[in-house]
Amino acid sequence: MSNPGITLALSKGRIFEETLPLLAAAGITPAENPESSRKLIIGTNRDDVRLIIVRASDVPTYVQYGAADLGIAGKDVLNEHGGNGLYQPLDLQIAKCRMMVAVREGYDYAGKVKQGARIRVATKYVKAARDHFASKGVHIDLIKLYGSMELAPLVGLSDVIVDLVSTGGTLKANGLVAVEHISEVSSRLVVNQAALKLKRNLIQPVIDAFAAAIRH
Ligand code: ADP
Ligand code: MG
Questions:
Q1: Count of CB atoms within 10 A of residue 90's CB?
Q2: Domains in the chain and their CATH numbers?
Q3: Which of 73, 82, 121, 205 is 20–30 Å from 45 (CA)?
Q4: Ligand 1 atom 6 nearest Cα
Q5: In ligand 1, which atom is closest to the CA atom of 185?
Q6: Structure confidence by residue, pLDDT tens digits, 32-90
């Protein structure tokens, strides 16, 4: 029998933690903590709601193909994914941070840009970086990384990085400084459009409960 309930895709870490109060507002309590459990499918107090735990950047893909009916993903991730097939009804105002350009302390970013120099950019956020530098008319060589971007300028892999910053503590600890703000980032609720039509009786109350619980 196919699953008659709804499946919500979440990632571990800050998004899971900050989603717990929203789930509670919708009357949903996870049966296990994904930080300590190795299970990737987690039941809840409700027979008709389950959670799947996936990599943050994979959330839009699961929802796009209907393997999850709903999901919670950062705007950074949604921007890279493109949002195809996803209904994005709510900015949940969680996991807030900023997408920034950062360099080594002492690197003359403004000067390089003014000279029209080609800049090497290391990032996980290839689309955001391309769009940002194209809009400034700056020519770049892009180097795709999957994590620990802060290392790249320190070992000469790149001149700059494009990364998410909240307190700036990680940049500071590595002798980097933010030099440009690209965008504000927070996490969004994403919904599979076909699922919304077929299971509106289950999905709409979750959207409504989340909407009522958002902290502005
Ligand atoms: P991963 O390590 O799989 O890339 P993270 O847990 O680092 O995942 O990030 C998941 C999501 O949390 C990101 O897509 C982003 O939206 C948000 N995020 C990342 N870094 C921060 C931060 N420093 N502060 C707040 N939110 C962040
Ligand atoms: Mg991370």
A1: 17
A2: 6-95+186-215 (3.40.190.10), 97-184 (3.40.190.10)
A3: 73
A4: 13
A5: 16
A6: 999 999 999 999 999 999 999 999 999 999 999 999 999 999 999 999 999 999 999 99
